[in-house]
Recover the amino acids of this structure.
């Protein structure tokens, strides 16, 4: 727009200068023509007529003078008396004309509204001598009108051009800027992860091509990101469904990813652990942190069992490489193998204990049977004694095998309980009477909070539990020892079997319900237990949805506590 205005002013000024230049040359030519007429025409009257005709044609007033006299003037353009002195040729201008120069001046008439153009040329005789001057004065009102018309034309043209340029600019702006603005909006949406916005392209030029390319780019990015998100979701699903703990450590040794099991562990190890925050591995347990640092240093896979806070973890640490060259991080997989290790130890202990328990009776069976076969015992009494030993050891082996089978079925929940409603006081009273007769050197006591304490249980299994506990109390209580059985009911039906025997060491209490576990020494010395009774007892009580616990003190005694569910209304 400014360019058009500038060009309009420049063209107007140039046209003004051009037109005045053209008019000046025309007046100079007319003045020279008059000068030639005056010099070369002998007929003064004809010369005057020609001069007047030239002046009339030029619409100018002519003033002719020589260095000696004033020849005359012709007023066809403007009255010479109306020409201000500052517009008329000055003595200096006349002197310049006598020097052979052409003088041109512009000024205003007395009304200061009409401009006048003055031109002076020398009179040169046949001898090429300058002897006078011819001056033409021409009002430029017509010239000004023409120039004004031209300037108005220029203004109109410039205005039309300006309007056209504005319209064109608006059109081009809408044609160019709108697609660019759309592209900008689409680019912003793409930066925000929104790829469904499309550019509406209406042209086939470069901008249209760019718009089509951005639409294709948006579709490709959307497809790629959806594929990446799908893979990420699948990876997250896999990590979340894994029971093993998985964590990823960056090359600056920060924890950056952890699945739910790993997050649970990290919350135990790192106080106030929050997913998404930065945690350095130096906040991990030292055993694990040292293994990760070793994997970084050696840049190789490591597999070790690590003991952390009393539990055993199988840890696999594998480097992550960038472009298969530079290590970019570490992935650590941790599996809690505490139970596996414990079960493996139990398996080994089970084999060892069974072998130990079977070796003694088998050796005795072999020895006494060989004695019978070799006729070492000749008299019938000795043979009977040997046969009784063989029978006792066979029964002992049978009890061991039966106990093992019962325990295996109980642990596998393969035994169906034949439950019925019983009155517990009667069961306990009957058992204690039998033990009183069998062990007259022991003192048995039975205490109860009242009658009618019922339970819904398998009576044979409950009796097996009570017999195991009372047998243990009898075996591990000295002569004249006291065994007390209590029965009472609160939220649960509670049975306690208490003795004042040797007691169990405190360090053995957590393990006495495990298979083949025998507490020492004074408690097991010279006793025939296999170490399976309490394990069977615990499983029977748990099968009845009850609990069993123990309290003991060395040389004071041991108390086993059984808690069974109360009888519900539908079990009567």
């Amino acid at each position: 727009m400014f360019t058009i205005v500038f060009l309009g002013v420049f063209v107007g000024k140039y046209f003004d200068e051009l037109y005045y230049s053209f008019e000046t040359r025309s007046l100079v030519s007319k003045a020279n023509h008059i000068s030639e007429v005056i010099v070369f025409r002998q007929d003064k009257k004809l010369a005057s007529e020609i001069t007047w005709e030239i002046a009339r044609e030029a619409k100018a007033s002519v003033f002719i003078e020589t260095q000696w006299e004033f020849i005359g003037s012709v007023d066809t353009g403007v009255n010479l008396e109306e020409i201000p002195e500052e517009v008329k040729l000055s003595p200096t201008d006349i002197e310049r004309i006598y020097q052979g120069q052409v003088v041109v001046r512009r000024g205003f008439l007395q009304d200061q509204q009409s401009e006048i153009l003055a031109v002076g040329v020398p009179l040169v005789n046949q001898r090429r001598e300058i002897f006078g001057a011819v001056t033409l004065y021409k009002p430029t009102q017509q010239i000004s009108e023409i120039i004004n018309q031209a300037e108005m034309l220029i203004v109109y043209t410039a205005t039309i051009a300006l309007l056209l340029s504005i319209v064109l600019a608006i059109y081009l702006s809408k044609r160019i800027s709108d697609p660019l603005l759309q592209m900008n909006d689409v680019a912003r949406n793409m930066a925000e992860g929104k790829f469904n916005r499309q550019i509406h392209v209406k042209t086939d030029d470069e901008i249209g091509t760019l718009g089509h390319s951005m639409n294709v780019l948006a579709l490709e990015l959307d497809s790629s990101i959806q594929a990446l998100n799908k893979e990420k979701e699948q990876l997250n699903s896999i990590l979340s469904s894994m029971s093993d703990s998985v964590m990823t450590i960056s090359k600056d040794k920060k924890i950056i990813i952890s699945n739910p099991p790993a997050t649970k562990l990290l919350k135990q190890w790192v106080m106030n652990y929050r997913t998404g925050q930065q945690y350095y591995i130096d906040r991990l347990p030292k055993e694990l942190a040292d293994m990760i640092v070793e994997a970084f240093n050696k840049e190789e896979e490591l597999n070790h069992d690590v003991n952390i806070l009393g539990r055993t973890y199988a840890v696999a640490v594998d480097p992550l490489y960038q472009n298969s060259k530079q290590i970019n991080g570490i992935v650590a997989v941790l599996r809690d193998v505490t139970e596996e290790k414990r079960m493996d130890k139990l398996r080994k202990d089970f084999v060892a204990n069974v072998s130990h328990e079977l070796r003694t009776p088998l050796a005795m069976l072999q020895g006494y049977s060989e004695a019978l076969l070799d006729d070492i015992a000749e008299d019938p009494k000795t043979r009977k004694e040997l046969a009784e030993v063989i029978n006792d050891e066979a029964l002992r082996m049978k009890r061991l095998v039966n106990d093992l089978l019962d325990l295996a079925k109980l642990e596998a929940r393969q035994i169906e309980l034949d439950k019925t409603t019983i009155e517990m006081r009667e069961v306990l009273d009957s058992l204690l009477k039998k033990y009183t007769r069998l062990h007259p050197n022991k003192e048995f006591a039975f205490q109860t909070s009242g009658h009618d304490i019922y339970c819904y249980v398998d009576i044979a299994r409950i009796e097996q539990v009570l017999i195991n506990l009372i047998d243990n109390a009898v075996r591990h209580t000295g002569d004249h020892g006291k065994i007390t059985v209590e029965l009472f009911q609160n939220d649960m039906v509670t049975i306690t079997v208490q003795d004042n025997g040797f007691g169990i060491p405190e360090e053995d209490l957590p393990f006495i319900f495990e298979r083949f576990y025998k507490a020492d020494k004074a408690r097991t010395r010279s006793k025939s237990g296999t170490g399976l009774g309490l394990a069977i007892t615990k499983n029977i009580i748990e099968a009845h949805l009850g609990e069993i616990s123990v309290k003991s003190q060395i040389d004071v005694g041991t108390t086993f506590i059984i808690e069974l569910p109360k009888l519900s209304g539908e079990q009567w």
About this structure: The first strand starts at residue 61 and ends at 66. The two ends are 106 Å apart (CA to CA). Residues 520-527 have pLDDT under 50 and may be disordered.
